[in-house]
Amino acid sequence: MNYWWVNQNQTSRQEVEGGYMWSPKLQKGGKRNHFYETMKEVAPGDVIFSFVKQHISNIGVAQSDCYEVPKPSEFGSAGDAWAEDGWKVDVSFQRATKAVKPSACMDVLAPLLPAKYSPLR
C-alpha cells in the first residue's frame, strides 16, 4: 500500500463527489510533469490525501488502477489550462472527521518529507 497527496483546489467538489481523481497526461504545452506521471503508479488499496485550501479534508482509498480518459466535462471552465487527455483513478473518499492543516504541524512533518517533489515546503 502506498500513500498519495493530491491537490484538488480547482476540482475537489467534482472529484470527491464523483469518486475519482483526475489529472492531465501532459502540461498544455506538451511537456511531462512528474506529478501527472505518478498517477500511473496508484494501485487499488492505496490511500489518497485530498489537499484543498491548505487543509486535508478528505481521505480516500484507490479503487482502481490508473486509466486513460478525457478531461471530465463536469469540470466546466475549471482547469482550462489543462490538456484534454488525462489519467483517472476511481477513489472512495470519506470526509475527515476534522480537517488537518499540515502547515500547523510542519515541525513534525518537515523531517519526513522528501527533498525533491515534496507536496509541502
Computed structural class = mainly beta
> How is the biggest beta sheet arranged?
6 strands, mixed
3D shape: globular
* Uncertain regions spanning at least 5 consecutive residues: none
| Helical content (DSSP H or I, runs of 4+) | 10-25%
Note the total helix count.
3
Give the overall average pLDDT.
Answer: 88
Tell me the fraction of residues in β-strands, as a range. Answer: 35-45%
**Structural Rg:** 14 Å
- The number of strands is 6
SSE string, helices as H and strands as E: EHEHEEEEH
The span between the termini is 24 Å
Could you walk me through the main structural features you see in this protein, from its secondary elements to its overall organization?
- The protein has 121 residues and is mainly β.
- 12% of the residues lie in helices and 36% in strands.
- Strands 1, 2, 3, 4, 5 and 6 form a 6-stranded mixed β-sheet that branches.
- The model has no long low-confidence stretch (mean pLDDT 88).
